[in-house]
What we know:
CATH class of chain A: Alpha Beta
Largest sheet of chain B: 8 strands, mixed
CATH architecture of chain A: 3-Layer(aba) Sandwich
Number of domains of chain A: 1
Oligomer: heterodimer
CATH superfamily of chain A: P-loop containing nucleotide triphosphate hydrolases
Structural class of chain B: alpha/beta
Amino acid sequence: xxxxxxxxxxxxxxxxxxxxxxxxxxxxxxxxxxxxxxxxxxxxxxxxxxxxxxxxxxxxxxxxxxxxxxxxxxxxxxxxxxxxxxxxxxxxxxxxxxxxxxxxxxxxxxxxxxxxxxxxxxxxxxxxxxxxxxxxxxxxxxxxxxxxxxxxxxxxxxxxxxxxxxxxxxxxxxxxxxxxxxxxxxxxxxxxxxxxxxxxxxxxxxxxxxxxxxxxxxxxxxxxxxxxxxxxxxxxxxxxxxxxxxxxxxxxxxxxxxxxxxxxxxxxxxxxxxxxxxxxxxxxxxxxxxxxxxxxxxxxxxxxxxxxxxxxx
Amino acid sequence: xxxxxxxxxxxxxxxxxxxxxxxxxxxxxxxxxxxxxxxxxxxxxxxxxxxxxxxxxxxxxxxxxxxxxxxxxxxxxxxxxxxxxxxxxxxxxxxxxxxxxxxxxxxxxxxxxxxxxxxxxxxxxxxxxxxxxxxxxxxxxxxxxxxxxxxxxxxxxxxxxxxxxxxxxxxxxxxxxxxxxxxxxxxxxxxxxxxxxxxxxxxxxxxxxxxxxxxxxxxxxxxxxxxxxxxxxxxxxxxxxxxxxxxxxxxxxxxxxxxxxxxxxxxxxxxxxxxxxxxxxxxxxxxxxxxxxxxxxxxxxxxxxxxxxxxxxxxxxxxxxxxxxxxxxxxxx
Lengths: 313, 333
């Protein structure tokens, strides 16, 4: 049984103009096993952040269901959802925007403990443990967010998400606002925490090398749908979907003189307000055929554990 | 003679909290047709340096000392009028966010036509025609139609192309590009990098390319200057910098970047974070984060020394930290 599973997940948002909607997520299935790190990659507008928020029930899905340890939590709310909230936490991209600047570190970490009914007598030692665990040390507890660097603030954000000992974390671009030297520290911290706490994670990111570094399995999203899924080793060595291929070949690598045969896609990602018919990627795809405009390819398994949605490949 | 020559430039910001020495003694040259990447993390001073070259440092910042010369002419000694004549015509700049240089209420064709009329004295009609040609040159589909659009009607990638069209309108010899692809998705970034390379090949313009992304540097640069705490700490050809970095900071940066190729190993990273511009560490500003720091590094600021032909470094220990020294191998291969 998967730790968390989504089936047929769909999310429509109201768009400007009467009765118009935008489908941000369209029929996504995904599973994250206990202790597994699943990478969700895609460019802006792909719907990857929306998937993360749907899983945590921070957004209401338009259709589909979410199962946590096999139990359907799609319809739960209020008190009935609370025990699951404790199991599932989020780490945000911008550690500054997500920390209350008027609160001291100890207050920031106390809040989830209070909300989830951890006995008050345990708070002190729990906060101390958390600060040690994320590498800040207990001495910082009475400081305010502005007294920290970006990387340190992200450590506070991570400590907060770990306060109630979740088993699953959605990390939404957790290192993309950090300088590369600091990004490395935070990636190492996440790897350590995962090993130590057996955390499962959905790691949402646009940076493929970062995802390669942390994920066991990777899902590639384009305009609201999963177009390819495989283990990280397979996906990066042997991508099947032309979009995955193009993404990989577009990613700049810090090595001189290995300019690879690049597939440069034409144009930008279409607006989610005007998703192309058939395969949504066809308008930028160098392999597109007549069929791609007419019929939408569904995900199919090409080899065990490797899924793709493409008519041509 | 270099096209652009920066000598011992100091650009400071006098704030209530103290003096921020954003650019703290930078010397750098860009030859004709050359692409020099200026790499640094946030707070390194890279953007202020590029604004200093353009004469566009916002108050309370000001160039305190040093010089910037373009084709042998000292920019500081020039009247604002002469500088304006140079900006846009001889040297142009593009930014991370195109909306900072595009006027939201003017059609993009008009905006591109404006420098053509101002600098080259083209008639309104000729300038408009040329604007459409420029939009075509930067790969905008349907250029005649797009010229009539307002910036908000275009995607991020298209706006970046419009800004590039505006920058190259008068055929500048130097283009300063400040993180021009940072806000773009990788597939669009690849298009813009290809476009810049292509334009450069055709026009022979030089580029000062400011970025934090080492992958982008490897793709575009002939030479690289690494900036840390307002100073150039390493300056070498792109090949030497990536294959044989000398400065521990450069090595740390390279070892921080996760690889697409795998196998996945622990990233080395760099401890600590970039110091503020007000309280810079004594001696070598990098010493609190450097695992090779000695007392010398804590007390005495290193000078720029030549480590190899065309390879300059500010590090007391650069002679020991050769590419062969295994104990400092960065583990990026």
